Batch of 2 targets.
Target 1
Amino acid sequence: MRIKFIAGNWKMNLTKTSSIELARAIARAIPNNVEVGVAPPFVYIDAVASVIAGSKLLLGAQDVSCEPGGAFTGEICVPMLKDLGVRFCLSGHSERRHIRHESPDLVSKKAHVIYSAGLTLIHCVGETLQERDSNQTLNVVRSQLSELNPTIISDPNRLVIAYEPVWAIGTGRNATDQQAQEVHAFIRQTLGSMWNPDFASRVRIQYGGSLKPENAKGLLSQPDVDGGLIGGASLKADSFLAIVNAAV
Ligand code: PGA
């Protein structure tokens, strides 16, 4: 039985004050039987950590350096995140792949740095509109999953895959329930061949891309949809909590 995991990706939004208020409002309203996390901008992680201490809200990071520390101006390493109480971190978000041009090799390095440090890894995959239109969706997703090394990643509880079709992110246009389920089932099957079917059955697969209160119930009730990675709708307590409650 997979417990659903709803994570808010705040991206480069909010202020210190609004981050604290939002985290506090979410932390006090988390129902049972669902995992909930938020990934604030780096500079607000510490402030958020102090207001959610002792609550069930999991603290996350949106990105991390692939280096363990040292002379890398402007970067944040995984020991720093752990120091602040961060429990999960994203790798391969489409905005890093497509806007910041992170290569599959860099994404792969980051994924293994995150996992090897003991954090939960949310590895993001998903096709562009052009790739969907040319029937490349499953090939793209398979190749992005192949960035993960099964000899390093051995705990299915600390691996989460976020399927985020690029054309659905921030556009208001979500995948249909069937489109999401089709790719999620393919992801689970692929994980089964990379690891084994038992491992694959324990990995949570989140959907992301214009997930909002109005479409949450349908998407989250698909058999292979085990949660969501939420951008825009995670910036307000009401809409984020409505999605959280749709997952219970
Ligand atoms: P969105 O973003 O919910 O605003 O579409 C999702 C994401 O990028 O994780």
Target 2
Amino acid sequence: MLVLGIESSCDETGVALVDASGSGVPRLLSHALHSQIVMHQPFGGVVPELASRDHIRRVLPLTQEAMQGAQRTLADVDVIAYTRGPGLAGALLVGAGVACSLAAALGKPAMGVHHLEGHLLSPFLSADPPEFPFVALLVSGGHTQLMRVDGVGSYELLGETIDDAAGEAFDKSAKLMGMPYPGGPHLARLAMSGDGTAFKLPRPLLHSGNLDFSFAGLKTAVLTQAKKLGDDLESRKADLAASTQAAIVDVLVKKTLSALSQTALKRLVVAGGVGANALLRSQLNAACRQRGIRVHYPELAFCTDNGAMIAMAAGMRLQAGLVDLQRLQDRYTFDVKPRWNLSEIQPAPVPAG
Ligand code: KG4
Ligand code: ZN
């Protein structure tokens, strides 16, 4: 069972092929990716219309690249999966339209995949995949959620951000400090030479007693601090970056540990772009080692958006019997869901659109 996966929800076009034959973890055969970061950088953020147009330019050449990488042809593909949401409407429509057209041309089924399920299952692309059940910390540019994952399609939301996502907090704070988009990795790099205790920044909801997050106040505090520094900002920027990173990571780590103790689970999966953050990884690793908890991360290349996680999520749903392929066959009308809660997809099969 060969599954082609197409991701186009935001500013990365990704295409990948997995082999989901048998009952073992689906095997990644190839993946191809194009990031639009350079294109959006002059605008300080993603420009949706430019994103859609670039997905159109990239998606078929990347599909060819993925097929060549796996030394297969499109005729070998059994199912075509695409990101149905959440994400930018126009960008999603490109992937959905191309996936459904290809599927119609090949006479194969097309299936919509939830982008966050892709992130959640991305650690299964690594050589040492996790086992169910686990707690998942999903930290991306658009989402910050803690989830209990009991199996494919079995996701219980434990807590989430009530305003900005962790990635947004990184990006907005970095922008205030004059760093290019997306600021998260730039801020993290600068923070390496700074002192994380230099500035006292708020840790919102740290003692709220629940597993929700709030990051909107942090960027205001960073802005206030930056203004206070005035001309000294340039010389203190590394310290401010380090203090911002420390505040975000501190909250993420403490809430994740609470989720682990509340659920009594001994396994943690960290997914999404912010999962690439070195301080977050080292603090989680140290805290979990002390508590006898195994931590799994996606490979760095699969932390941010990519096609492999979409193909993997589709392959795992197929293997788990959560997809009615017969129902999907010959149904090539589609819609996309720019706003889509993960809890809506379970336990029912992903609809044909
Ligand atoms: O998962 P992702 O590609 O996009 C969404 O689906 O939203 O994550 C992108 C986010 C951006 O906010 C980016 O700044 C952040 O992940 N990010 C990082 C790092 N690498 C990426 N944030 C902090 N430290 C990093 N090393
Ligand atoms: Zn994402």
